[in-house]
Amino acid sequence: MSLLRCARVSVVLGGRPVVSDASFTVEPGECVGLIGPNGAGKTSLMRAIAGRLGHGGRIALAERDAATLSPPSRARQLAYLPQDREIVWPVSVETLVALGRLPHRGGATGGRLNDAAAIQGALARMDLTEMRKRPVASLSGGERARVLLARVLAQQAPLLLADEPAAGLDPAHQIALMETFAALAGEGRAVLVSLHDLGLAARWCTRLLLLDRGRLVADGPPATVVTAQTLARVYGVEADIRSDAGGLLVTPTGRVANRLTPESRLR
């Protein structure tokens, strides 16, 4: 059973198509990276899947039409971490992470013991246990990013969507983040994560989806998607691509001449 199925999903913003006919699935046990240049449509696609943006085509969660799901039902199937990291509530780290348990409140199962275990587990995974009582407003940007990720981890949904979660994290926490995603996949859940860092995406994701100007142009294992030819064509960069026992190593080394400017791409 696919945890996510997108069939010809399209998004139009301001009369302009930003995602066109995207079709793919995400299966249990996968950590799928969504990559593409600025303006490729990654965030719009993520928001459509999360129910935050109108779309054409069909989106199914665990083979159920997402359009028929109530917000609590959707939240029990899908946890979403958007790019926006603004936190306006004067709350502690632990209190904010506990918000991830709201979709499970009022059910026949769960209860406070399950809530506490989920919250403490999420704090530990994001290296936040020692700062759980601190006000979120006192944290750095990278620490806030980890708190927000802990909140969606506490949600314990089968499918996790994360839009640029590595942005602003130091290298150690970027690696810890990807290790967490790999662990979730190993537990039978699934992750769809958008990344600008091609090195992280190629090394840690089991599969990559490549968007270019709103269209899905590649879908497969990292070694088949991240090639010198594809990076030159889509990103306009030359790259050194190698492999070792841990996976691919991708290092952009220069720009390709006569490429589209960022302003000419879709936003």
From TrEMBL:
The keyword Secreted does not apply. It comes from the Bacteria. Pfam families: ABC_tran (PF00005). Its EC number is 3.6.3.41. Residues 4-238 form the ABC transporter domain. InterPro entries: AAA+_ATPase, ABC_transporter-like_ATP-bd, ABC_transporter-like_CS, P-loop_NTPase. GO terms for molecular function: ATP binding; ATP hydrolysis activity. Keywords: ATP-binding, Hydrolase, Nucleotide-binding. The keyword Nucleotide-binding applies. Signal peptide: none annotated. This is ABC transporter component. It comes from Rhodospirillum rubrum (strain ATCC 11170 / ATH 1.1.1 / DSM 467 / LMG 4362 / NCIMB 8255 / S1).
